[in-house]
Amino acid sequence: MAGKMKAVVKTEPGYGAKLVEVDIPKIGPSQVLIKVTSTSICGTDLHIYAWDKWAESVIKTPQILGHEVAGEVVEIGAQVSKVKLGDFVSAETHIPCGHCYQCETGKQHVCNTMKILGVHVDGVFADYAVIEAVDIWLNDPAITPEFASVQEPLGNAIDTIYAGNVAGKNVLISGAGPIGLLAVGVAKVFGATKIIVSEPNSYRRDIARKMGADAVVDPTQEDLGYVVKHCTGGIGVDFVAEMSGHPVALNQSLKTICTGGSMAMLGFPADKVSIDLTNDVILKEITLIGITGRKMFKTWHIAKRLLKEKRLDLTPAITHQLPLEDFDQGMALMKSGNCAKIILKP
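The structure corresponding to this sequence follows.
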């Protein structure tokens, strides 16, 4: 397809990004071109926009931002047979090599030479975007474009909560950022009996309640350990979903886990973290689990079912919908913390 399109591009190193006109990208034989109908902002996009140390070390400008998407297939490469023109699709954002040890043993999501859509290749904050065949996900038409575009971060929440086998358990979700808020809803659907959320931002605490939290805590003003003991009859939580990456929050959360419990960690600490392994992990026989994203494509099937059958309502967690042109406003909202998922519409 020939022509021009608008796109949010990191044109050069430094703070910010620009809405520019670029060529509609060409596809290769194992790719598809989609017309973007809905896309959402991730914390990764904010890191790139703000040009922190991580972004500086990874991003090669110019680069189109964005990786959470739903859209319509408008062009298909010669080797692609899994979709047809007009199909409603989303994209897994891991681009695996397909031939390393991890890929060959069913762990494509932790490929040794992984590339990421919108990080190592041009992303989806644009009118059109290129998706690799290996990453195409065929959506059910019953799912709205807004919900469909949030399946990628929803998958992170699903994998984190799934790791805790939470049915019938008391759960602490540490950090109610956008994915933490999605995790509240997932924990509820998966049968957690008591869901406690620790989050300093009052705006997000309110959304956590709407997503199904039984108790919310401001850990900067309240004693998290005391609240957890009170809510669990003195036992502590069976499982923690650590979504914040904050070293203080991680240590506080570890202390709330009952002996024999577990913690899954999705949040990225900015630097090395010191924890009391002897008393908070080893002697309590705590299981620690790292979560890096979604499983290809087990997680997507779970997300699709939850949304198609309306078992999970994401409405409270989608707080803003903006035109693509207003991406700067979206990034400012992300920086302020007074938002959850922000949808951009080309």
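The CA atoms of residues 99 and 310 lie 37 Å apart.
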